[in-house]
Amino acid sequence: MRVISEKHDRKVRPAPSGPVTRAERSASVRPAANGHGVCLISVPNISCGACVARIERALIDCPGVVAARANLTLRQVRVTLTDANTDPSPGYEALAALGYTARPLDPSDTEPASAQQDGPDLLRCIAVAGFGAMNVMLLSVAVWSGAEATTRDTFHLISALIAVPVVAYAGQPFFRSALVVLRGGRLNMDVPIALAVLLALALSLSELLQGGDHVFFDAAVTLLFFLLTGRYLDQLMRDRARSAVTGLARLSPKGAMARGPDGSLEWIALHAVAKGMILHIDAGERVPVDVRILHGDTDLDRSLVTGEAMPVAASPGTELEAGTLNLTGGIEVEVLRPVAESFLAEMMRMLSAAETSRSTYVRIADRAARLYAPVVHLLAVATFAGWLLVTGDWQVSAFVAISVLIITCPCALGLAVPVAQVVAAGRLMRSGILMKDGSALERLAQIDRAVFDKTGTLTTGTPMVTSCFEGEAEQREASKALAMQSRHPAAQAIAAHLPEVACEVADAVEVPGFGVEGRVHGRRARLGRARWVAEIAADPQAATGPAFAFEGAPALSFDLSETLRPGAVDTISDMQSSGIPVTMLSGDDAARVAQVAETLGIAEAHHGMTPARKVGVLEDLRDRGHRALMVGDGLNDTAALAAAHVSMAPSTAADAGRTAADFVFLRDGLDAVATAQDVARATARVVRQNFGLAIAYNCIAIPLAVAGLVTPLIAALAMSASSILVIGNSLRLNGKRAAAPLQSVERGPVAIPA
Amino acid sequence: MMSNLTRAERANAMVIAGTGAFIGLVMAAAGRGDPMGAHGWIVLAFCGALFFVVGSAYEDPEPTQDRTASYYDDPTKVGILIALFWAVVGMGMGVWVASQLAWPDLRFDAAWSSFGRIRPVHTSGVIFGFGGNALIATSFHIMQRTCRARMPDQVTPWFVLLGFNLFCIVASSGYLMGVTQSKEYAEPEWYADLWLVVVWVVYFVLYIRTLARRNEPHIYVANWYYLAFILVVAVLHIVNNLAVPASLTGAKSYSAFAGVQDAMTQWWYGHNAVAFFLTSGFLGMLYYFLPKRAERPIYSYRLSILSFWGITFFYIWAGSHHLHYTALPHWVQTLGMTFSVMLLVPSWASAGNALMTLNGAWHKVRDDATLRFMMVAAVFYGLSTFEGSFMAIRPVNGLSHYTDWTVGHVHAGAMGWVALISFGSIYALAPVLWRRETIYSWKAVEWHFWLALAGTVIYVFAMWNSGITQGLMWRTYTESGTLAYSFTDTLVAMHPYYVARTFGGLLFLIGACIGAWNVVMTIRRMPSETPERDYPTSSESREPALPAAE
Amino acid sequence: MMKFIRTLLKPFAAFFEAHAKTHYRLERHSMGLTVGIIIAAGVGGFIEIAPLFTIDDTVEAAPDMRLYTPLEQAGRDIYIREGCYACHSQMIRTLRDEVERYGPYSLAVESQYDHPMLWGSKRTGPDLARLGEKYSDDWHVRHLVNPRDLVPESVMPQYAFLLEAGLDTDSLPDRLAALRAVGVPYTDEMIANADSDALGQAMPDTERSDGVFERYGDETAVRNFDDRPGRLTEMDALVAYLQILGQLTDLPEQTQILPEE
Amino acid sequence: MTILTLLIPVTLVMGAVGLGAFFWSLHSGQYEDLSGDAERILFDEDDKPLAAYPPGHSGTTKEKTP
Questions:
Q1: Closest CA to B320 of B271, B386, B274, B277
Q2: Which residue among C22, C28, C29 places its CB closest to the CB of D32?
Q3: CA distances from A277 to A255, A341, A645, B499 (A)
Q4: CB 3.0 to 4.6 Å from A716: which of A219, A466, B133, B158, for a disulfide?
Q5: Helix, strand or coil for residue A8?
Q6: Please, are residues B144 and B210 in contact by the beta-carbon 8 Å criterion?
């Protein structure tokens, strides 16, 4: 067996969704202002500024396009058409001609939440708090440095005029959250924050009215600014965690072509598809609901169901699950179940259930807050009561109590986790690993089990030609030419493998389930299943893999195989030696699964797994108290990824899989899993240290505050200092050298016969 | 140039120039026997000349080509040439004033040539003449390019550019006649100030109008910096120059503020002028031309926006650090110090952002002197902002203030940052603007670069030395507890540094002359072509940008 | 429980959704953002150390504070015109060496009628805040005519032309009126007699000089400053101004607190 | 320091103008595609303005995303 070591570009793998029908494209155009039509196109492989320019220039030249704007950040293109009825297809074709994958984007998928948004957004709050903090601080610095008498009173007044509206506006995220939990009869971190800010403000106002010396508008506003910053960072970490359900929903076609009683074809929306209807599904389309084939032969990509990208032949009578991709031939199908009961809908339900169960994970910070908030409140109340009892002066008592609240304000606690996670995210980013959610890091640090999908995860998924017949140049040219006629992955692998220039093919026909036939240099030739090729070959012996033959000439065969992902061997052995047992799940057949398991030294390997069974394995692990890491790429892994304690997917994974996973690694090697785990552990360590620092700080500061030795001003200062300490500690994460990418994996990808 | 104006625009221009000439005449008549009268003649001559230039071309055929299909670059071209002219004049004056300190008799024993009168000609010449024109010219270029739109009309940019230069001419000729308010960097008298307000408001409106016409939804960050420059400078200028003229027929006026109030206002203005004239606008230049020249997007666009808001919020109160240990209330001094130190954050964010942009393009910096100008400018920006924050700390300021250290600091910023980024931008811009294949002589650019760098380094080191030496000598005591040195002793000690400073300045001036020559030769001698791009490589072959986190 | 957590997360969820588009590739810039915000905020917190710097700076009223006479004001205008502020400060800081070198440190009240102030920012030459009456008129005149005659090392320009230039007294009433408009308490009488007073201050023992004493106080220096009787030159005005520097009030001498080290 | 009665309001107004500008920029989608915006100035194939498109759709669609 020849070992293939050249690095292949994983990006050439066709998008799992396949092409989009014209009808679906048209349906994505929305009317916009001025009578124009607008359609949003998702173009995932926009990668740099040059793409932006190229795409916009190409689109603007398309008929019916008024304007086009590519968004490099979101990897979307927004196309304005002359009116809402214009066909956007030329745009899609232009994009395809440039080599970009384009899919219509339902605006409701991407911009859902603005309507249900509560209150002003955090960035505005930060801007307002920052503006207020700057100006109030300015006046406070003046007062502290000695501005006196009228000047001081004036400055206090101006501070109040700035601080009150600023707190009212920028404090909303905390007030709302505090209100919500208080209504529920509970406490969280936001309650002491809201209380401290409001009390500081109230007391300052009363001091101001009495012409007092000390006001703490500065403390209130600065505190708010700090906390908002922490919260914002936290949100930055989470905002990529979009629901995988919508990602999966995007896969299902928006409608289907139905065959009417008169034999005409009509596009109908998905929800109108009913049981018993006859649908026509073209090559390249996705099956919208569960169906049975009535007429036609084809090859199917059932990766959504099995995870295997290798196509399966299908003929009349075969039942197809929704989401299956029809690859090579048009088919007539009968609808078996309505949309709501289809396989895809079932998967979405499963996924949403899995996501919900994961969201019960309580983040470290929240766990800390649960304990912290009541303690702080009790302390503040006790301090107030104690001082009132001793001095009888409510103002002094309030003063001290506020100091306690401010000094214990969980600034450091609020920053401890997000800052460490932001720094860690930056480091992971540099190692080519994207993290979607801060809590994922916490979860990754806790795993004691690892579950790997086979195809596309442990192996590279796409078939590769491992050996090729030793024929004449003419035969190879003809093979390549025929291979280029098909979208079948095997054909594409063959086309990619052969360096020859393809020659002309006449009368090319793709016979679904068998292969491609055509005339090359006037000779009939076939490329496809060995048995089918043998029908025209001179020596009808059956080869195993795909074969090629000129009519009457001997058949020549290819060997196809899948290969192990670089670093797979080391990653698996490292994991097992560090006490994390590895399980392999695959939808593939027993023989191949066993072979891979043996190569990698994995003891527990399951074959023939459906998505539901994969979820079942993970749920079983969870029920037994294990915390499992799931690494997978296929559509069929999506629900399992969501069900696992934490999950990772390669960037080549299906959209839905990437969305469901907590981490996406951009590099080829599987060693990313180890790197991520290292960073996660380091982060967990830093977070613990941060908590330690914050607690140590509180242990020193709280007694002082309770004793009344700390003015609110010093409290605010101490609070800032503790925050900076925490930030500094977190930045250490950055300083550590990132784990060197595994250099030793150059054993080369191991080829496994397909 | 006239041929690009429509007949209506020519008529408008003539009306404006005619009105200006009339105002000049009135000033000349009213201000007889006063420097204001002389200024009237200058205004009359300037506007009259414009009137006749436009008038003589009035009957020429109207422009035929579709004007909306191109950017309006004529004012930019003229602005660049004027900026280079002022660079030579202003820096020449600088060398002269510097040499007067080393050799005090190096003047013609005339009233106009004394140090006190020609020093503001130098400062205004380089800051407003060179810097201001470079800012106006590049802003016209950048706002049109980043908005993908032509300026709304063709007379307003000329009004802004020529009006501003009229201000510069009136200001610097005034100094020679002794017309000054004695407010540093705000020396011009009341009528010049009023005129500048008019010009500046028109400038702001022009900018906003162009932005409103933009064909590109996003407003590039450079525009934010330019807008802050225009807007804040207007406010500062108006507040600081509030004054009552002694009479409407004379140049003399008295500031509305006195003593400590005036000092506060003056340095509130003075430091913000540094922030928004000498920093904000030039950062706009940096954020456009540096990525453009390096053919790499700015390292972190988000950071550039963040540091913009930082600079806007932090700078405002930094000015009072110019008044440490003075009769200014102590808390105001502390305020200034605090904010000056905080300023380091957004300043370094910008400098770091610029340098990180070059990460991965260092080979270009090595080969391309134009890009090197910008790179060194960013380095000096970082150095001088650090130095500035450092010098704002009270005890440090106690030593540095009133000495040449301040002068060295200012020149590190003015020569190392402002002038270098301007020259870099001009070299990047000239071939694009005049549609020339390339700059006339790359060798000359190299020469200019090394002369400028050597000049700056010599200058700054000389001033550091002299400043710190003098500051220390002033406070040196003998064992018996008396001051060790007389003032004259310290002055004598300065002499070698003053000679060195003159030499450094001379190198810088020679560089500027070479630069001006090179640009003129580029226009006159280089084959006129429409190059597809001025930049040496195509953006397709760019190496992938590093992730910003790196 | 689940519902509770959902409610809790609702505002956050709303936020991500709204900003999901904006920050899709946020990791790319997150470090810059983080460091920027945090350092900015952190420094903002640290400036709360500022109260450590406190000092009393009571600006006392100076009851004996007098105004510039028209001649002195004319001299001040010449000082401004010649750009003297570029090399000479008029602000003695509260530092020991400065007080010992130049005299009591400057008080805010001393420049309360200075429109504009001439505190300066650079000392190529020495501070002039307390120059008045330190040297003779004759010294000043000779020094201004050619500084190197008296101080060979000096780099100051020569101002011999001042001796030839006659002082323009016609505009003095206007100038004083303008100064009154910005807050200097000149009386109508002072403004009306401004040109006469300017002449009078340089002509001792005349009727005009009596008017100067009458309006500006007995301590006013009435002398023929440039020693050229019969002609009022710009030199007269400038020397008169230089001789009044630091002489407007006695307050600094009385109120000196120990200067800072 | 009566001067502060002038300077503080001036500063506050300037700050408020800045804040307003920031809000406007946030609202008008200025921060929607920061990486794309940084790249766009590098396009210099044609050094001329975009042709005028129908109002509201000049060149690259101006209206903000719904």
A1: B271
A2: C22
A3: 13, 15, 41, 97
A4: A219
A5: coil
A6: yes
- Output the six-digit token pair for A71: 């968004």
C112 has a chain B CB within 8 A of its CB? yes
Rounded CA gap, B468 and A627, in Å? 65
A359, two tokens: 């969201």
Domain C70-254 has CATH 1.10.760.10: yes
Residue A298 has what pLDDT?
A: 81
Q: Which residues of D32-53 are buried (b: 16+ CB within 10 A; e: fewer)?
A: bbbbbbbbbbbbbeebebbeeb
Partnered with residue A255 across adjacent β-strands are A269
The answer on B159 and B221 residing in a single domain is yes
**Where do the domains of chain C lie?**
2-58, 70-254
Classify burial at A359, counting beta carbons within 10 Å of its beta carbon; exposed 0-12, middle 13-18, buried 19 or more: middle
Nearest CA distance, C239 vs chain A (angstrom): 39
- Measured distance CA(A279)–CA(A281) in Å, rounded: 6
- Contact assignment for A80 to D56 by CB distance below 8 Å: no
Which runs of consecutive H residues, i.e. helices, occur in A145-216?
149-170, 172-183, 190-209
Q: Per-residue pLDDT tens for A20-59? A: 566 667 767 777 777 788 888 877 677 777 788 888 888 8
Backbone angles phi, psi at D59, to 5 degrees: 70, -70
CATH code of B200's domain: 1.20.210.10
The total of structural domains in chain B comes to 2
Query: Is residue B549 included in any domain, yes or no?
Result: no
- CA-nearest of A357, A436, A474, A333 to A651 is A436
- Distance from C-alpha of A706 to C-alpha of B162, rounded to nearest angstrom: 68
Nearest CA among B99, B91, B152 for reference residue B126: B91
Asked whether residue B67 is assigned to any structural domain, the reply reads no
Look up tokens 């349906």; give the residue.
A27
SS (HEC) of A99-153: CCCCEEECHHHHCCHHHHCCCCCHHHHHHHHHHHHHHHHHHHHHHHCCCCHHHHH
Structure tokens at C221: 């220096």
Q: Which residue has the tokens 């529920």?
A: A184
Sequence-ordered alpha helix ranges (H) in B343-441: 344-357, 362-367, 369-391, 394-400, 404-411, 420-433
Tell me, yes or no, if the pTM score tops 0.95: no
Structural domain for B4, as ranges: 1-56
Contact C28 D35 (CB under 8 A): yes
Please name the residue that has the structure tokens 């003649």. Answer: B41
| Same domain, yes or no: B376 and B503 | yes
Whole-number Å distance between alpha carbons of A530 and A555:
8
How many angstroms separate the CA atoms of C244 and C236, rounded?
A: 12
Q: Which two tokens stand for residue A334?
A: 């009968």
| Cβ contacts of A426 within 8 Å, gap of 6 or more | A734, B549, C27, C30, C31
The percentage of chain A sitting over the pLDDT mark of 70, rounded to a whole number, equals 74
C62 vs B426, which has greater pLDDT?
B426
Q: What is the pLDDT of residues B483-524, one digit of tens each?
A: 999 999 999 999 999 999 999 999 999 999 999 999 999 998
Peptide bond into C70 cis (omega under 30): no
User: Which position has the token pair 């190692």?
Assistant: A431
Residue numbers of A annotated as active site: 453
- Average pLDDT across chain A, whole number: 74
Q: Which one has a higher pLDDT value, A409 or A256?
A: A256
- Are B33 and B137 part of one and the same domain? no
ipTM above 0.85, yes or no: no
**Contacting A residues, span 109-128, partner chain D, CB-CB under 8 Å:** 111, 123-124, 127-128
User: Please, what is the Cα angle at D39 between A130 and D51, to 5 degrees?
Assistant: 110
Q: What is the DSSP string of C92-125?
A: --SBHHHHHHH-SPP-GGGGTT-SS----SB-SS
Are A145 and C50 a contacting pair at CB < 8 A?
yes
| Cβ <8 Å between B313 and A145 | no
Look up residue D52 and give its amino acid.
Answer: A
